[in-house]
Amino acid sequence: MIAVSIVIPVYNSEKYLKECIESLLTQTLTNCEFIFVNDGSQDNSQALLESYQKNDTRIVLFQQENQGVSAARNKGLSLAKGQYVGFVDADDYLEVAHFQTLFEKASQENLDIVCSNFIKEQDGVVITSKAPFQENTIFDSSFIKNEILPFMIKDSALNTCCTKIYNRKLLVENNITFPVGIALREDAIFTFKCIFYANTLCFLNYFGYHYREVAGSATRNTVAKDYFKSALETYHYDYSQLVPITLQRELVEKLKTIQLINNVISYTSIYLKPNKTVSFFARYRYVNSMISNSIVQKGIEKYEKEMVTGKTRYQKFLIHCIKNKRTALLVVANQYSQIRNKK
Fold it and tell me: Where are the domains of the chain?
């Protein structure tokens, strides 16, 4: 029996694909299948995948015209036969015991979802990311709906599908797939639905997934992606159309507003960072327009107390700058932060 089906969407990924493949094939959990969906790559990804497939029958390879990452993952889901399903991005790689660690916990306790921590490599800096909930504890449906789901509405820390394995029965019975045609939130919507319908969930104290943000990737391309537009779409998103949540409307509004402002804080750093393809003045205008948005301004005015709670002095200063529309001060603060981080 196949323990875990791992779905890997591939699109022009040859630079890092070999490392990804070999980190999968050397997993200590051997009864896996690796479903690579080549989503219309124009490089040598297909040839590389075929060369590995010749020597390992666990590799399932499907090729399709470019339809986007969600469609590729959905195709992989339709082919999956494992008891559990996991996802890996073709730019990333794993520790050798990653899937064994997650599967052993999931199968021993008959869990719906098991999550690991992850290590993020961004611009040469290594960042570790941990879930904000007690580790190695099995959470039931009540805790999930009253604590974890509200957290997901106000914070994106749990959005990725790649640090988790899901009981395939959970996905099939609730008809959970990735939304097609959405630029940046497909992970968040899929994961939110999975966690809503889960009866059991566990966060492990384990770092097994290495996430690499490559220069020019879809999530880092400030020219092609309008981050703030996507953040506003998330703010306006009606979660009750996705799943039958019972949270009070006022609470949901507060949680969504907090996430929006936190996203704006992050985006000021992204857009004010030197970029050879976008002029400083274009990036300055974007940040100025973003912090002047009426929803942002009204949100800070209404929920400033909640937003500054637990923030560092630097983050509080950024919130102050956004509240008072001080774009020039944000530029200075961002430059100071970059110099300080280089030391």
Answer: 4-213, 227-342
Q: Are strands 93-94 and 200-213 parallel, antiparallel or unpaired?
A: antiparallel
Cβ–Cβ < 8 Å for 302, 335: no
Out of 89-98, 114-123, 159-168, 179-188, pick the least confident.
179-188
The CATH code of the domain at 4-213 is 3.90.550.10
Q: Nearest-CA neighbor of 112 among 43, 49, 171, 200?
A: 200
Tokens of 10: 């591939």
DSSP string, 182-205: -SS-HHHHHHHHHHHH-SEEEEEE
What is the share, in percent, of the chain residues with pLDDT greater than 70? Answer: 94
| SS3 of residue 58 by DSSP | coil
Q: Which residue has the higher pLDDT, 221 or 272?
A: 272
Whether the pLDDT of residue 339 is over 80: the answer is no
Question: 12 by DSSP, 3-state: which?
Answer: coil
Model pTM score? 0.90
Q: Can you read off the two tokens belonging to residue 148? A: 């974890």
Place of tokens 């992850």: 118
